Amino acid sequence: xxxxxxxxxxxxxxxxxxxxxxxxxxxxxxxxxxxxxxxxxxxxxxxxxxxxxxxxxxxxxxxxxxxxxxxxxxxxxxxxxxxxxxxxxxxxxxxxxxxxxxxxxxxxxxxxxxxxxxxxxxxxxxxxxxxxxxxxxxxxxxxxxxxxxxx
Length: 151
Hints:
Number of domains: 2
Helix content: 55-70%
């Protein structure tokens, strides 16, 4: 789906559509409808408005579309319970073990069902979330290189 279609769908899938969403975005219903209308060249959705729309609707179609257009995917980050490097490392390994166990179980009969695939994706997302938290924690604890005085 292209980004324009994703924006249109985000507005129109929202309960109450543009009539309900527009006031929450501090604009009129007509302006919001025009901003997401692919046939309207006079009104354009800004990045800030798209961000606000995703926050208000809790709908990430626009973000997914942008990511897909650039060969990327988005992964929701699950809350991590610890800030300790050791615990984050152990949690990452445990999450990876759960992922491998889920895959092992799914392929045992030679067929991966849609339900099994959902479980694999959820376990994989958990591994990525913990790994991202671990890298963020390591980055935060890294010392900046010392600056050399200019001669």
